[in-house]
Amino acid sequence: MTAHLPSALLKDDAPVKLIDPARHRLWPILETEEKQAVERVLSRGVLSGNFAPEALALQEEFSEYVGAKYALLTHSGTSALILALAAAGIGPGDEVIVPAYTFVATAQAVLSVGATPVFADVDPRTGLIDEQEVVRWLSPRTKAIMPVHVHGCPFDIDALKKLADARGLILLEDAAQAHGATYRGKPVGALAAGGGFSFQSSKNLGAGEGGIYVTGELERAELANQVRNFGHDLSLAEGRLNDLRRPLDGWRSLNSQRLGSMYRGNEMMAALARSLLKKLPARTRAAQENAARLSARLAKLPGVLPPHVPEDRTTVHHKYRVRIDRKAAGLEEFSATVVRDALLSALKATGFEATLWERAPQTHHKIFSEAKNLPESVLENYKARFPKTEELLDGSFLLFTQSCPLIAQDAETVDAYASAFERFWEHRRAIVLSAAKAG
Ligand SMILES: Cc1ncc(COP(=O)(O)O)c(C=O)c1O
Known about the structure:
Helix content: 25-40%
CATH architecture of the largest domain: 3-Layer(aba) Sandwich
Strand content: 5-15%
Structural class: alpha/beta
Distance between the termini: 11 Å
Largest sheet: 4 strands, mixed
CATH class of the largest domain: Alpha Beta
Radius of gyration: 23 Å
Number of helices: 15
Bound molecules: pyridoxal-5'-phosphate
Shape: globular
């Protein structure tokens, strides 16, 4: 995507830098404490294990953070979701409704337990699953709904719980992006039958790769623990008998009971995550305050719609999506994608961190668009349009990127963004005209 800038944003043929790229802070931010945490593991020499000390401590600390009774460390957010699904008894022949707007891991987790994902359209203001669209795609095979707290903004848990209860379905939470977000005053993740968080590097708590499954029910935690250990007949209590001086030795022969795999986390990641978890509340608060100030200023610009957050929730702004109202912006004669692409490339050229992330409803993935041998209603779902997801994606972009996310920036940089964006916006028509002319 080349930027076609109007002359007002060019100086000696080079783009004017409205924001100095050098002022961005890269993510993840790793400090002395994180280095010490990893060193602690190396000195101890226990690198892995279900019941290894860092894993156990992280599980305790994270369950307290999200108000869950049980937390189980996994090697990725995807494996945490697999545990959530498997522990809820989801398997072959079952359908699970997930949003059309998410990262593919949500649907891949469903496929991994042998079940079938079915997609529902989202609210174009938030990207959160639309309850009516869930109802539209229910079938006799639907067993669960797994919406996503996308960008770190909670979905309407009470509404979906009510729907799930009325239809005898299980509600799960994809909380991969939402560490510390709250719904009606409570942290998300453990507000339904089970949830999964990701510790992949880009996340607000990014410890390399990793994840954690949380639930309030012992029976599900026990099942999940077996699934993350090759389906072995382990129990959570028994593992504590492990001899930490000889962590690699087994103490009895194990018997595989069910489909499982090796989904455990490792000690260096757990130690890193523990250190980052201590810093997460302050970082989240700062990101929320910065986002609030930025949003207040962007909202004053004609046609700029900062992230919409329903009043009963807090978001953690894992991603910061800006929507464009073309009519209010005076850009109505251009198509949504012409406007979006012209603005995005001009933003990048003038120094902003901006990107698209997902570009289309999840069904664009070949695994769905070319799927065969599935029930008619599922094939219909994979061929369907998701107009509200398209509306959202065609008419918006992300300010800040995974390498330089909002949470990594200081207040001065975020204020500089607001000022720079105000200047940028004065040139919006010239930017889009210039790009449209260039074709
Ligand atoms: C919404 C969503 N679900 C699931 C995942 C999977 O997490 P991981 O990459 O840790 O497997 C991610 C992130 O990658 C995500 O953004």
